[in-house]
Amino acid sequence: xxxDVRRELEAxxxxxxxxxxxxxxxxxTDWTGRYRGRTPAIVRPGTVDEVAAVLAVCDAAGVPVVPQxxxxxxxxxxxxxxxxxxxxxxxxxxxxPVDQVxxxxxxxxxxxxxxxxxxxxxxxxxxxVDLAARETATVGGTVATNAxxxxxxxxxxxxxxxxxxxxxxxxxxxxxxLGGLEKDNTGYHLPSLLxxxxxxxxxxxxxxxxxxPEPTHHVTALLGCPGVAxxxxxxxxxxxxLPELEAAELFLDEGLRLVVDRLALDDPFxxxxxxxxxxxxxxxxxPTERLAAAIEATSVGDVAVGVAAGRREALWRYREGHTEAMxxxxxxxxxxxxxxxxxxxxxAEEVVRRVRDLDADxxxxxxxxxxxxxxxxxxxxxxxxxxxxxxxxxxxxxxxGGSISAEHGIGTAKKAxxxxxxSPVELDVFRAVKRALDPxxxxxxxxxxx
Length: 450
Ligand code: 2HG
Ligand code: ZN
Prior knowledge:
- By secondary structure, the chain is α+β, with helices and mostly antiparallel strands.
- It has helices at 3-13, 48-61, 113-121, 139-145, 152-155, 158-161, 190-194, 228-241, 253-262, 288-296, 309-327, 341-358, 388-399, 424-437; strands at 18-19, 42-43, 65-68, 85-88, 104-108, 125-126, 162-168, 174-177, 203-210, 212-213, 217-225, 245-252, 275-283, 303-306, 333-338, 363-369, 374-380.
- The strands form four sheets. The protein has a seven-stranded antiparallel β-sheet, sandwiched between helices.
- A hairpin with a 5-residue loop joins strand 7 (162-168) and strand 8 (174-177).
- The radius of gyration is 22 Å and the shape is globular.
- The mean pLDDT is 98.
- The chain binds (2R)-2-hydroxypentanedioic acid and zinc ion.
- Residues 369, 376, 407 line the site of zinc ion.
């Protein structure tokens, strides 16, 4: 950026909050290491008014901006790949009181998911969106990307929790609708529009979020299954019997081996199973017996149950450890996709074959939120820039009637394939909305839209 723009930015947020040089390297790279950018400056406003002032400066000067929260995204949507200014929202850490009557709270964009969860827990409530990056992922980032997570099955994703939003438009004007009225049918629903817009339409600065009661009992079970189709069948059967089912997570034996090995864990079972299903129930009446009876009615092999928090966490570690363990093998290609449930098992078989045929060095790992139809196809053994596998897997997904992104979003990683999931008319509407809200095209200009 020009020296006069930098001086203006420093005048708006204080020179201590405009970073450059070595300190920008971390924020310029994504968590996986696949997307490495560079930035002339990281700007860290401390209030919504400062966000507004920064954007007004950038808009007037035509300086492109990448908004960033905890930088835990997996599609290269939050890093400055084309030398953009990084607008870090982490200092917007204000967390309001929990309203017990409406069960809502207003959280600033920089509040981490774990802090929000702890805040709700103090009031006997919880925030329904949960994911492995909870310590670092922020409210703003999860709203901007419509993060899904492991409780989607019961509560939906981030969009379903949103009761209001505060955001700054490209030109620095603030849109604020944080009243949290449950019934409010007054035209376009801006929270829905901005949620999942990946920083391309406005910069989210705060969100009004719904909370849910924290049940008194939780039970987690890890089930050894004879294969993906069987695990899915078990999951469907449990869901039919157990309204308190919150999560149904799939992984395969190879993934478990890797996690156990790399993260130095104990094996869950003496025997190995081709597939594993991790399920969790939560209720005010102890669901353990009901879960046991429901499992009994299926063809599950081995069962490990956790009721105490530590034991439940240990079971979750096998699943949540996948991301970490995989990155230790090198930089993976991450293809987060949805399949119609009826196609999921066939797709799982086919995708492994396709990847193997594509390149003998490529290795395909499968895990995910199986009852959502959501598989995380991770491919290791290829260079980060080799897009053949992305093309092959995403095309296969489309052929099976699936979506090229289930929960991670499009970012830069998938924009070349957005046409597989969105029609030309839909893309025209996307572009029209983008032009209307960000006419100079300064907000995250290189993500989402091809
Ligand atoms: C998960 O479900 C996250 O653990 C990350 O969405 C998935 O690492 C991945 O590919
Ligand atoms: Zn996931």
